[in-house]
Design a protein that fits this description.
By secondary structure, the chain is mainly α. It contains 17 helices and four strands. The strands form two sheets. The protein has a two-stranded antiparallel ribbon with strand order 1-2. Helix 6 packs antiparallel against helix 7 and helix 9 runs antiparallel to helix 10. The longest helix is centred in the N-terminal third of the chain and has 29 residues.
Length: about 350
């Protein structure tokens, strides 16, 4: 009896083993493609990981090789395609950059960061209308929002991406305005669209660049008060950037507000001195000289009185060898000095209806 039982158990084990082997062979035969895809995916992840390491180390050629091989094994890894596109942008190979952005967006159409970068390169290659359409897709996208405290909040990133899309769409419309050339009607139409885009960007991003560019567009549209308003807002955000000071000075000069223009030209000049941009500084001081001559002709006593008061204030600690010295570590502590650059000339006129 014991012998029969032993034979039976041995037979069962053999039969089960045989069934398992046959099942495995059959599954390998019927699901060969599935297994092959999964194995290739694993290999693809490995090479893409190696590409990420090379990318972080700025070993771009190795990163390209790893990403291309990894994508061949794992054709749906959209982040690798996106990184590969960014590398080709660095190489200025815009054809391959666009190709890889497109591949990433085919896999994941709601990949908004890739779509924005894709649109930027379309603009760089003079495909401005296509770029604008891509920005509109980002703006009109309505994703499902989810939030995990301290981990993820896609609504915040969604709003930021919309702001960036509006900002870059403003740049695209401004480019179209320039390309319109002598067609003044079309040029103004595109400038108005650029203004609308920048206004949306300002509401979302509230950055120096969005405010500055909105000021610039309004200056081109001859909307004097709005231009000055946004230059002043830009200065409040980044008081040590010379462009807003310079453009506001030009605006004030065109308004024949010469003393105020001179003050902003001086601020812009000091900031340019700090970064040693001699060509721009020389041009700026030529314009300032012209403005000072106009002030002398008008014999503005208030302006000259203000000059004498400033000279009495000993600001020598801010200068070295005749140039403005900006210590970035102490910048925040020097409230009075920074405040003088935050306060724009003509503020009472530009900001009056809006904030005062």
């Amino acid at each position: 009896m014991y012998k029969i039982r032993e034979i039976f158990e041995s037979t069962i084990v053999r039969v089960m083993s045989l069934v398992f082997i046959i099942s495995f062979v059959l599954s390998g035969f019927f699901f060969y493609d599935f297994y092959k895809v999964q194995i290739n995916k694993i290999k693809g992840y490995y090479w893409i990981y190696q590409g990420d390491i090379a990318y972080k180390k700025r070993d771009l050629q190795k990163a390209v090789n790893c990403y291309e091989y990894g994508i061949k094994l794992h054709p749906k890894h959209y982040k690798a395609m996106y990184n590969l596109a960014n590398i080709y942008v660095a190489y200025e190979d815009y054809y391959l950059a666009l190709k890889n952005y497109e591949k990433a967006l085919l896999v994941r159409p709601d990949y908004e960061v890739a779509r924005i970068d894709y649109a930027i390169i379309l603009s760089e290659t003079y495909r401005t209308d296509e770029a604008i359409e891509q920005y509109k897709k980002v703006i009109n996208n309505k994703p499902k929002f989810y939030k995990i405290p301290f981990i993820v909040d896609n609504k915040k990133s969604y709003n930021h991406n919309r702001g960036v899309a509006y900002y870059n769409m403003g740049i695209a419309y401004r480019t179209k305005s320039l390309l319109a050339g002598l067609n003044k009607k079309a040029s103004r139409e595109y400038l108005n669209k650029a203004s609308e885009s920048y206004e949306e960007a300002v509401d979302i991003l509230k950055t120096y660049n969005s405010n500055y560019n909105l000021g610039l567009i309004n200056q081109l549209l001859k909307n004097t008060q709005q231009a000055g308003y946004y230059y002043c807002k830009a200065m409040e955000i980044e008081p040590m950037e010379y462009e807003a000071h310079f453009n506001l000075a030009v605006l004030l000069k065109d308004m024949e507000k010469y003393p105020q223009a001179a003050e902003e030209f001086k601020k812009a000049g000091l900031l340019l001195d700090a970064i040693s941009d001699n060509v721009k500084t020389r041009y700026l001081y030529d314009v300032l000289s012209d403005v000072n001559q106009k002030i002398a002709i008008t014999n503005d006593e208030n302006y000259f009185k203000k000059l004498r008061e400033e000279e009495e204030k000993n600001l020598s600690s801010k200068y070295k060898a005749g140039k403005l010295v900006i210590d970035t570590e102490k910048k925040e502590k020097d409230d009075e000095f920074i405040k003088s650059f935050k306060n724009c000339e003509g503020k009472e006129f530009f900001m009056g209806e809006n904030e005062q």
